[in-house]
Amino acid sequence: MLQKLKINSAKKVVEEKLLSRRPKAIKTMQNIGVIIDAEVLQNLQLEDLKKAFQSFSGSVSYIILSEKEIEGEKVVKKKDLAWKASFKPETAANEFQQQEFDLLINYFKEVKPELFILSGSTSAKLKTGFSLEEKQLNDLEINVKPEEVSLFTSEVKKYLSIINQ
Q1: pTM of the model
Q2: Phi and psi based region of residue 6 (left: phi greater than 0; alpha: psi -120 to 50; beta: remaining)
Q3: Which site from 33, 43, 113, 116 is most exposed, i.e. has the minimal number of CB atoms within 10 Å?
């Protein structure tokens, strides 16, 4: 019950932020954030995904939605959610949420409340990901399967070069 109240409260705050948000062109990519759902990793190796995202220039920060700890990785859990679209101060999600990214990659196919809140409340010049029900979450939607990592990255690069002309 309490978790549902937190989620509903946070969703309202995020939706207001998304309505006022305007994407920006990216001249140089220095900071890239990647939000991954652990369910996507059932069909992929995390190392393969990381290798593909290293092809973007700049430093890449990853966070994974998972109820289990993943050795050496930042993880966000359902219990990390606080009120008003924020995460508890001592969590990896809060640290990730406080960073500013040039590009935020939402690497998930299903919008779960924690993913919606984390992505929606994280500051980025441009947000990209898969085609989702929540159309306002991504500025650039790539219509491929999560298993097609190289196709996803090449499409993102192609559209970024068009946007930045």
Answers
A1: 0.88
A2: alpha
A3: 43
